[in-house]
Amino acid sequence: MVKILDIRNKVAPSKTTRKISQITKIARHHSATTNGDYFAFWNNRWKGLGWGKGGYHEIILTDGTVQLCYDPIYPTNGIGNHNTNTYHICVVGNGAFTAAQERAFEERCLLAIHNFGLSVDDVLGHNEFSGTATSCPGINMDSVRKRLKELNQPKKEVAGVTEQKLNADQEKVRQEAIKLGITDGKNPFREVNQYYVWNALLTIARELEELKKKVK
Ligand SMILES: [Zn+2]
Prior knowledge:
Blueprint: E1 4-6, E2 25-30, H1 38-46, E3 58-60, E4 66-68, E5 86-91, H2 99-115, E6 123-125, H3 141-151, H4 168-179, H5 194-215
Parallel strand pairs: 1-4, 2-5, 2-6, 3-5
Antiparallel strand pairs: 3-4
Zinc ion binds near residues 29, 126 and 136.
């Protein structure tokens, strides 16, 4: 989990709102600076441009810490003519980013994809939006999307599709477990949650209790 700095009540407030369902794109930006954060960008750039609010919903600092700037219901000033339907994430740097920043971007971006019901193909670099002419986001977005897609794969076990086969010893265990009523023997490699394990163990523990009583 990345470290979050929640500055949502310290930023210049947005006067307009939107519905979450209006968000159809996630934009990646870079700051085109080697350093800085929301407050530096606001004081040195945005305020002077006469902006009423900041440019991004999230800003990923050089150490990978995420400044959470605006709730998604507030459009921010990331890309002219595209702000109503875009969630903006900025990575601080000028075409070069740290590994910590990339891990943070992956985590935050996948979370946004899930929260807004989008897909990896809805993640675009600033200069991939129509009508833009900029070097932002300073990274090859095809490689970014490739990474996101690899991370976004559902686990095979979860999807119920597995090529894995039981070896002879494992099969013996499975057969015995079926015989003793611990399992139906299906999906041997499926991940199970703690509750399932407790439930199975309780049955055995209760039988053991009964046995102990009888022995006494
Ligand atoms: Zn940008």
